[in-house]
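Entry type: protein chain
Record version: 2
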Amino acid sequence: MNLYQRNNGRRIGWGPPRGRRLFVATIIVLVLFIMDALSGGKIRSVARQVGSEVWKLGSTVAESFVGSGFIGSRRALTKENSALTQQIAQMQERVAACRVLEDENKALRDMLRVAGVERGPARESGITAPIVSSFRSSPYGTFQVGAGSADSVSPGNIVLSAENFVIGRVEEVDLHTALVREIFAPNVSSDALLRGVGVTVEGRGGGNARTSVPRQTDVAVGDTIISPVLRARAIGIIGKVSEDSGSAYKRINIYLPVNLLSLQFVYIVKN
């Protein structure tokens, strides 16, 4: 009888592959059992010897693996990696701290340059003071500096940026701090000169202001606004000029060329 038969065009055998494998394994076991019985148990003896040698070989390999220090080395490497990660984090913190110090040193050098200008022919005395309250947190266009009456700071003192622009005036003084009102605080008006023409500058907050000049006045973006009452110091720059055909005036937008939010120090003119 053939091992395969035709059934609807397909070949079929003794059953699924798993059944065939089980059948073959059963036959092999029976053959080995019969051979062992005929040999008087010699096959079992050989199997035990082979198994013993395999076990010894496996034990030797395992002992060599453990004795090689691989596991201990892995633990040591893990510990060393953790220590290196911590050292890198500490170094990054130190680098960040150094950058902060560099920024502060640069800001202080800039203020020293301003101090040198202010102590020129006019012989005006002043002091460099840190900003101790942010412009965001201070209400009504004010901010606080770390210098006060103990440093001979008094109300009305002019406050300058590193760019030598007036950014405010001291309004209130405590022993070691002072409150400064921004030059362009909201709803604060200041007298100024633009190309020799007297104007009134209205603060809008955030270092911005506006004013207007007669239409025939020759002004341009980038012109500097100065304050005659603040010893002819610069208080802003023209950022935009607008004209309406039916108006007799030009509208002027003014800004401080200073990033108020990043300021760290200011220079207070005492005289």
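Comment: The first strand starts at residue 5 and ends at 7.
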